[in-house]
Design brief:
Helix Hairpins; five-stranded antiparallel beta sheet; two-stranded antiparallel sheet
Length: about 230
């Protein structure tokens, strides 16, 4: 059988002698080579130990190709293998048996694993520290927005009188639109249809930033309203 590092559990890639990035064609060729090398027919008449070794090796080769030769099984195996290298230290092979990774007994492997974990923690902390100034800046913007919103709530609409025909109500008063149509001045705390900015002739314009509604009282008179 192929020789593996003492502290490592051989993976299916080790068994076939290919890298983890090997293409399906490379894996297939490696399987055929290993299968020819360990086929039991080549060990007929050999000693019992050699025959047993060949039988075990052939079983491992077949299992390795059964997993790596199938895209779905290979993808699942790669995930489990990665977990065994960097996560829990367990590798679940395709027969459903979970085994402890012997690399956990290797001091060098454990030291490298701890180093990777410390680097990951350090990177995470660095990212968090880099985010602190931005979080503070966003918080300041939020406070400015809230302060401005509350400040604007107490700001009254300045009276605006547009040059135009008389409409029977004063500018900056709240009105209800009644049949006619005509305007009825009401207290702004009551139900109303808006606050009067002024009136215009048909060839004029209402103030675009403030006007929310225009009421045509007649062919010559248009009232500009804003929110109360």
């Amino acid at each position: 059988m192929p020789a593996y590092p003492v502290a490592c559990m051989p993976t299916h890639y080790d068994v076939l002698g290919v890298s983890k990035t090997a293409t399906p064609e490379v894996i297939r060729r490696a399987y055929h080579e290993q299968a020819r090398a360990w086929h039991p027919d080549r060990f007929v008449g050999k000693g019992e130990a050699e025959s047993a070794q060949a039988e075990n090796a052939m079983r491992e080769v077949n299992e390795a190709f059964r997993v790596l030769g199938n895209a779905e099984r290979r993808s699942r195996y790669n995930l489990e293998l990665s977990d065994g290298l960097t996560g829990t230290g367990r590798v679940t092979v395709d027969d459903g048996v979970t085994r402890i990774d012997p690399r956990l007994l290797d001091p060098e492997h454990l030291a490298a694993r701890r180093e990777r974990q410390e680097q990951a923690i350090s990177t995470h902390h660095s990212r968090m520290m880099n985010m602190v100034p931005w979080l503070g800046f966003l918080g300041l913007l939020a406070l400015i927005f809230v302060f401005t919103a509350y400040a604007n709530q107490g700001t009254a609409v300045e009276p605006v009188v547009l040059p135009g025909p008389p409409i029977g109500v004063t500018a900056n008063s709240c009105v209800r639109v009644i049949e006619g149509p005509s305007l009825l001045e009401v207290p702004c705390e009551n139900v109303n249809d808006g606050r009067v900015i002024g009136a215009r002739f048909p060839d004029g314009t209402c103030p675009a930033p403030l006007t929310t509604r225009e009421i045509s009282l007649s062919a010559d008179t248009i009232v500009c309203l804003t929110n109360p």
